[in-house]
From TrEMBL:
This is Mannosylglycerate hydrolase MGH1-like glycoside hydrolase domain-containing protein. One of its GO terms (molecular function) is Glc3Man9GlcNAc2 oligosaccharide glucosidase activity. Belongs to the glycosyl hydrolase 63 family. It comes from the Bacteria. SUPFAM superfamilies: Six-hairpin glycosidases. Keywords: Glycosidase, Hydrolase. It comes from Roseobacter cerasinus. InterPro entries: 6-hairpin_glycosidase_sf, 6hp_glycosidase-like_sf, Glycoside_hydrolase_63, MGH1-like_GH. Pfam families: MGH1-like_GH (PF22422). GO terms for biological process: oligosaccharide metabolic process; protein N-linked glycosylation.
């Protein structure tokens, strides 16, 4: 069974391979996405190390001069996805979007180095990538934390990777829709519309893109100019973990200054994360940076926070919260608390289970010694695959496969878990 699943997963990676990068799935997403690529590299690393490094190299070859790594790289023309490069108009030599995504690269590179069967290859490739990843982390702190709070904000829901989370509903009311140019969504021609964001959400996504475009994609302006500024604990945990991993790698390769700076960013972040903790919710919450208030919305972001080295009592509380959620669903981890009225078991980030998030949550739990619940998450993840194949996401009650199929990062995580 295990060998069979690994073989199927490898075939998906090969099928979605476009040379130097993979597409998340055929049809729905025909370009390179940022965090998809870094997590997919983990899958490749078990059977083709060279190809794993290339996946991350190709992404970083499209880093912006200011340090940002864009969320999509449009390597080829394809009108199967909206919004394409003609909407973003960022003026990059290879067209890219103008926003970013969760910075998992530092974490992924460390994994690749640690497990390298070819250490010389790993050292060469890691040494070339480290300064680029460090520049991206510095960009985050400079452009997305201008007040120096220790935590960065996202300025568009697409940056979080959790596009239509219930977390954004209230803040999104602040984003207008006047002046949005007419558009033709392509996602609902590839996937079931009831599994996707709504039209009203898309209008706001596009309003933000047009707003940032008018500001010339100048990252010294975008943060303050955005009506959507949210501090997401999951996103910040990924950044903190990547800073820690980068610091360890920098030490290993004798890059003392980079190590020290990265260590400092991580420790500032860990200290500041506590401002997002809610005793009442028993987890971390998002913060609306415009008002300073915590967003009372118990989502997976506050559980993914354990991907960073948070204090042990916090990790224990998250484990408890996950155990309680485990009584409400057949498959952990639902992307939102099912007892909330807005929960929707089929609609994208408003309830379904995502394997990549499961993987990161479980990884954090193992690190903090919460292995019982971590093992349940892994077991549930593999049951989903056996039952419903390599989908984009799954109904946490029924295991119904949702969104795109033959999904690259889902396959990559299966290889990672079973190898
Ligand atoms: C917008 C590619 C991406 C993931 C995101 C996921 C989804 C895009 C979309 O697909 O977002 O970036 O058009 O729906 O939400 O996490 O990286 O798999």
């Amino acid at each position: 069974m295990t060998e069979d699943l690994i073989a199927q997963a490898k075939a998906i990676l090969r099928r979605n391979d476009r040379g130097g990068y993979t597409v998340p799935t055929h049809g729905l997403y025909p370009f390179q996405w940022n965090w998809d690529s870094c997590l997919s590299a983990l899958g490749f690393s078990h059977f083709d190390e060279e190809r794993a490094w290339t996946e991350i190299d190709t992404l970083f070859a499209n880093q912006w001069p200011d340090g940002m790594v864009p969320h999509i790289v449009f390597h080829e023309e394809d009108d199967g996805y909206f919004p394409g490069p003609e909407v973003w108009r960022t003026g990059r030599p290879v067209p890219t979007s103008g926003i970013t995504q969760p910075p998992v690269a530092g974490f992924a590179v460390r994994r690749l180095v640690e497990r390298a069967r070819n250490p010389a290859l790993a050292e060469t490739r890691a040494r070339a990538l480290l300064p680029k990843i460090h520049a991206w982390h510095a960009w985050f702190h400079r452009c997305r934390d201008p007040q120096g709070s220790g935590l960065v904000a996202i300025i568009h829901p697409w940056e979080s990777g959790r596009d239509n989370s219930i977390d954004w509903d209230d803040v999104f009311e602040r984003v207008p829709t006047e002046g949005v140019e007419p558009f033709n969504r392509r996602d609902i021609q590839h996937a079931n519309p009831s599994h996707r964001p709504t039209q009203a959400q898309y209008e706001r996504y596009i309003w933000l893109v047009q707003h940032f475009r008018r500001l010339g994609w100048d990252n010294s302006k975008l943060h303050d100019a955005s009506p959507f500024q949210v501090v997401d604990p999951g996103f910040n945990a990924i950044l903190i973990r990547s800073c820690t991993d980068l610091a360890d790698l920098a030490e290993r390769f004798g890059l003392a200054e980079m190590a020290e700076q990265s260590r400092q960013l991580a420790s500032n972040g860990i200290a500041a994360m506590d401002t997002l903790w809610s005793d009442a919710a028993g987890q971390y919450l998002c913060q609306d940076r415009t008002t300073g208030a915590l967003i009372q919305s118990p989502s997976i972001a506050g559980l993914l926070a354990g991907f960073a080295d948070i204090p042990a009592p916090r990790a224990k509380a998250i484990a408890k919260r996950l155990a309680a959620l485990g009584e409400q669903v057949d498959y952990l981890v639902p992307s939102h608390d099912p007892s909330v009225a807005a929960f929707d078991s089929l609609r994208y980030w408003r309830g379904p289970v995502w394997l990549i998030v499961n993987y990161m949550i479980a990884d954090g739990l193992f690190r903090s010694g919460e292995s019982v619940i971590a093992q349940r998450i892994i077991a549930d993840s593999l049951r989903l695959i056996e039952r419903s194949g390599f989908a984009e996401y799954y109904d946490p009650h029924t295991a119904e496969p949702c969104g795109g199929d033959q999904f690259t990062w889902t396959a990559a995580i299966v290889i990672e878990l079973l190898s």
